[in-house]
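## retry 2 of 3
previous attempt timed out at serialization; input unchanged, resubmitting
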Amino acid sequence: MIKYLERYPILSLLLFVILMLGFTIDVIPVTIMEARNFISAREMITDDNWILTTMNGEARYQKPPLPTWVTAVFGMLFGMKSLLALRWPALLFMASIGISIYLFSKKLQLNKSHSLMNGFIVLSSFYVIGIIIEAPWDIYTHAFMLMALYQLFQMFQSQKTSIVNSLLFVLFLACSVLSKGPVSLYVLFLSFVIAYGISFKLKGRVLHFLKLMSLLIFGIVLGGWWYFHVRIADPETFAAIASKETSNWSSYNVRPFYYYWSFFIQSGLWTIPAFISLLYPYMKSRVSNLKAYRFSFFWTIIAVALLSLIPEKKSRYLMPVLIPLALNIGFYIDYLTREFKNIKHKRETIPVYFAFGLIASMGLLFGLLGFFFGPFLTGWVLIRFLLITIILLLIGIFLIKSLKSNNIKISFYLLISFMMSLGLFALPISEMQIQADYKSVSELTDSKLSLYSINEVSPEAIYHYGDKIPKLKSEEGLQIPEEKEFHLLTNSANELSSYDQINDLYTIEFIAIYDLNTSKKGTRSHRSRLVNHLYRLSLK
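## retry succeeded, writing output
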């Protein structure tokens, strides 16, 4: 099987993503960032707001539109109600990161087997997977930037600015800027250039470097056309949004400088190999290509350092660091596949047995979760649970056998199989964890009565409703609808009591509570913003 994966590496990486998440990712509830993207995409289609983007009928310029354009195209083809179809673009861009890492590794003169493992490592890293639903704009901007850096690396190495490489570099760079502004320029591009200068040197290449900088400026200008257009077309709104966004960098989610120092944990499955791969004194005598390893090491460390300089810090901002980190981890895994049988010191073998043995233990013990699921395990859910239990049990057994025979290459691909199996078979079981109170306003879509809200409702609720939910309260005061009867959403049970104008004009009838939380009330993960109270208001 491994030889077929290595024979068709790009297809293998693409199929891995499709099999892991392509048929099951729709079971995960829509996140707030996703909902904003989906709503804007829907309004592009229904209201033709392709440039001056909106959300719930109001201007939304916080994020550039390229990812939303792609989402809208998939929505037009497969329908805006198909969550699976709306998430497929992010999955494809995730797959492109794995493919780009493979191609990048080949240009670093690593062999095909090593390069393919690098691609699988980045695709199975925890936050690379998580970012596609937590912050979908990020996967686009970093995927495009990696494509641009692949072109840039070729031009650096050849010292020639070929027309094809130049055009692709400018195009991908512009697409990255048009996906999430300068974020990837700062984290991935700047750290890449510095790391390249340290590892490969730039002596005799200054003129060539200046030519490439002119291409950089061209790409930024090309990608910035949307910002310039919106600044001219709607200057007041754009300025207010830009001011708020930039102020967040220094006043919102401020964390200490060392907040990101445990960044390697975000690789999830590869936490222990990631930590060891960053031990430069240990690794430098064990890698197959020291210059390439030095490059990936500095690219990773510099990216973390640059992120640490910004006061505003969030875990998801670390996602681009996992791209060069995957290259770094790959050097350690490659070393193990070549030399593990010859390693005699326990201080080297114990971390390997622990890292791979931990995953094997999870596979062997997965079936015990059935005691916690209890009454949920019925019908198709039970069949699916038994299937994934058997699959993970077999993976655990074979993983232990491969460790006993010191075959790390087989162990590596068993870990990849473990991740793919979790996504394909285990992920759908998570649906049964949704609480009984989970209720969506989507059932109101076919109602003959118009739906309004007093204050803002969550983007998730607006997405599920399938249309705009106009807000009655504004800076000018309370805007009373013209209808004699309508539905009204509130954020709390007592919210309407403070509005005498509504109480004087309408008979108020409580209808239902809509709760989009997947966890029970009173738990830490329960969010009050996902709870709305529905009333029917009839003119007296």
